[in-house]
Structure to design on (217 residues):
């Protein structure tokens, strides 16, 4: 479904037309999205605060469960033995993350612009199949403050996050759709490389004893 064909002149904006045409889908989707985030945000925030390693490893396990399907999808229109794109994406992403952290833990300040960035990442997760924003948000130290803001319905968090989501969905949906139609294999394997690299950088490097490690695994 394309919702971003920009009209001209006096024609009705395509986004408005798409909402009118597909409102029966948008309403339950929006309702489920709000209920899921508001009700589960507090649970996730507490989970990450009390059992950070277990929570991170649980998310990584869920993400790893999607990888086989992504691998299969990337082979539909491409050479099954050519994985240069995936390797290049994975290595470049991993190196970039390492440069950003400079050997130290990354902890981005929670402010208006960082929450806009969170919204952009979530928006990308909504329109890019297989892309997970959770690992990157965890890696940047923004997941817990974001979840806490959503759970408490804090407008200083919700407003910039909403701006980021809206900007991403309304400006990049058509581009992503075009990429998947014309360069499916390259696009899918690029995303795969990024997901794998961000997951590897998120794996905890310290566990609070053997029991914490066992549960995490």
């Amino acid at each position: 479904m394309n919702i971003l064909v920009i009209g001209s002149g006096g024609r009705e904006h395509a986004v408005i037309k798409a909402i009118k045409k597909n409102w029966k889908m948008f309403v339950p989707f929006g309702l489920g999205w709000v209920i899921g985030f508001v009700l589960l945000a507090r649970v996730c925030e507490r989970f990450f605060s009390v059992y950070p390693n277990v929570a991170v490893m649980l998310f990584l396990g869920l993400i790893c469960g999607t990888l086989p399907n992504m691998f299969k999808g990337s082979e539909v229109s491409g050479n099954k033995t050519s994985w240069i794109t995936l390797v290049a994406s994975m290595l470049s992403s991993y190196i970039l993350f390492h440069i950003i952290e400079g050997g130290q833990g990354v902890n981005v300040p929670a402010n208006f612009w960082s929450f806009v960035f969170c919204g952009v990442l979530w928006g990308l997760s909504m329109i890019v199949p297989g892309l997970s924003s959770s690992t990157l948000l965890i890696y940047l130290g923004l997941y817990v403050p974001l979840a806490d803001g959503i759970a408490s319905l804090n407008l200083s968090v919700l407003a910039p996050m909403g701006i980021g989501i809206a900007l991403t969905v309304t400006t990049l949906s058509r581009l992503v759709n075009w990429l998947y139609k014309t360069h499916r294999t390259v696009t899918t394997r690029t995303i795969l490389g990024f997901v794998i690299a961000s997951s590897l950088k998120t794996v905890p490097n310290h566990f609070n004893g053997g029991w914490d490690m066992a549960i995490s695994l």
